Backbone:
């Protein structure tokens, strides 16, 4: 079935159509400075293709929630946990629901973490749910930056990886990326390069005009034409639109964004003296009403009736809560062990970045009465790898020497080393390659063999394979050795 979406008209007034099936196979990149009409273009595409294909919108500013007029489900990300967001993403693929994920209200790192979890869950959906879907990402440079910023490096990598999967490998899973950016120079090249269709709007910086001209197949001297494009007009190129650069004036839309461009309004006519008195007036003596606070696992909005009741009640004097009692070092160690054991036993925690799990660890510690865990991210990462190897208390006396040896290895090798060390200490059979791979965070048995070879070159392991093909590993510096066990097949 061929479906063509009317995007507007060209210079001669003829309609410009986008082949929806071709778009699903070849992806789309939209670029233009702020105010050039990118959001208007995306809204036109979404409105005209609604009902023809499933649509998923990653919306940093909450502008597209008005698409609920077309049956889209608006999801306010600030109201849900990361795990709940991932579940929503998996369910929308199963039920083919069109969704707008509004990231309004989250700071930059939270937006990147939420978008990464959402996109990755869509990407990881089972094969029977690989239905075709348009995945629109507005302000894509926020989620696939070309360089590091002020957010944590692990968060940036997770977000960039999710965007790369969408644009590079999403086609086979039915996911067609439609990404919009203000500046091509700020967007990761690996993400931008996977698009075969382009709609380039007005831009002024030379580096962005040069990249846009290259993508459109124009000569550098023709790049100045991009600077002169009027608002709402784009140069289109690609197999789904036109084989040659074509000027498109985007047509009208039926819905509107919650925010709009600023308009001039008359200034107040009050005398300057009155305005000064208003600005420096004494604050009202009455305190603001105190809302009832109840514990919930996620942020929630107070219903209107509760808010009205709280406003009607007079404010009550409050006193500061007493500080929590100090914990002994043994109690802190027990809380750490319990929190790490809960994280390791959680199937959904497997494969998640350490920075994400660190937030969960801090919450679990606070719930156990430890207000400020002394562990930083680096310390938590090493404790996490140790816990995955079954060592919940690496500070115990019988593990101090083993941990000193492990400290000479990179952090990501800690879990594999301790898994073998624990088996060697207890005289248990040598762990199979599959178990070592899980502790190392990989599925490649080839990487496991290279890992074991690296540790053996550091004189930490001595591996012996007997005539029956069974393997045992000794740790000479500790005097420990595993029992012989069958080696995984090559």
Residues:
């Amino acid at each position: 079935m061929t479906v063509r979406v009317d995007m507007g008209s060209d210079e001669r007034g003829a309609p410009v159509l986008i082949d929806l099936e071709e778009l699903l196979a070849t992806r789309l990149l939209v670029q233009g400075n702020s105010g050039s009409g990118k959001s208007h273009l995306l809204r036109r595409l979404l409105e005209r293709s609604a009902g023809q294909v499933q649509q998923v919108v990653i919306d940093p500013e909450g502008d597209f929630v008005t698409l609920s007029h077309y049956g889209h489900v608006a999801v306010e990300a600030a109201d849900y946990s990361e795990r709940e967001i991932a579940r929503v993403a998996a369910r929308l693929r199963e039920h083919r629901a069109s969704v707008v994920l509004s990231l309004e209200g989250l700071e930059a790192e939270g937006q990147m973490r939420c978008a990464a979890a959402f996109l990755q869950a869509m990407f990881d959906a089972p094969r029977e749910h690989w239905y075709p879907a348009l995945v629109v990402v507005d302000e894509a440079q926020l989620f696939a930056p070309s360089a590091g910023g002020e957010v944590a490096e692990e968060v940036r990598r997770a977000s960039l990886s999710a965007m790369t999967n969408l644009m590079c490998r999403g086609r086979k899973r039915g996911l067609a990326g439609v990404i919009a950016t203000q500046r091509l120079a700020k967007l990761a090249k690996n993400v931008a390069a996977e698009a075969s269709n382009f709609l380039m709007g007005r831009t002024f910086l030379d580096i962005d005009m040069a990249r846009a001209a290259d993508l459109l197949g124009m000569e550098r001297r023709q790049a100045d034409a991009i600077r002169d494009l009027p608002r709402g007009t784009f140069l289109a190129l690609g197999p789904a639109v036109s084989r040659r650069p074509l000027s498109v004036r985007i047509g009208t839309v039926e819905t509107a964004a919650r925010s709009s461009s600023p308009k001039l309004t008359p200034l107040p006519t009050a005398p300057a003296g009155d305005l000064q008195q208003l600005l420096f007036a004494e604050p009202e003596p009455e305190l603001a009403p105190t809302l009832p606070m109840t514990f919930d696992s996620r942020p929630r909005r107070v219903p209107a009736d509760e808010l009205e009741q709280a406003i009607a009640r007079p404010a009550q004097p409050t006193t500061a809560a007493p500080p929590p009692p100090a914990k002994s070092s043994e109690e802190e160690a027990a809380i750490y062990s319990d929190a790490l054991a809960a994280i390791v036993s959680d199937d959904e925690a497997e494969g998640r970045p350490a920075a994400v799990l660190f937030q969960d660890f801090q919450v679990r510690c606070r719930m156990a009465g430890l207000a400020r865990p002394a562990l930083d991210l680096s310390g938590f990462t090493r404790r996490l790898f140790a816990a995955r190897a079954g060592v919940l208390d690496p500070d115990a006396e019988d593990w101090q020497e083993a941990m000193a040896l492990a400290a000479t290895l990179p952090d990501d090798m800690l879990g594999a080393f301790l898994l073998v060390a624990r088996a060697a200490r207890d005289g248990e059979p040598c762990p199979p390659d599959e178990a070592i791979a899980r502790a190392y965070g990989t599925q490649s048995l080839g990487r496991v063999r290279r890992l074991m070879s690296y540790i053996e070159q550091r004189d930490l392991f001595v591996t012996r394979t007997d005539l029956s093909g069974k393997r045992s590993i000794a740790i000479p510096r500790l005097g420990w050795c595993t029992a012989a066990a069958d080696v995984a097949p090559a």
In short: Residues 293-299, 310-318 have pLDDT under 50 and may be disordered. The chain is about 40% helix and 15% strand.
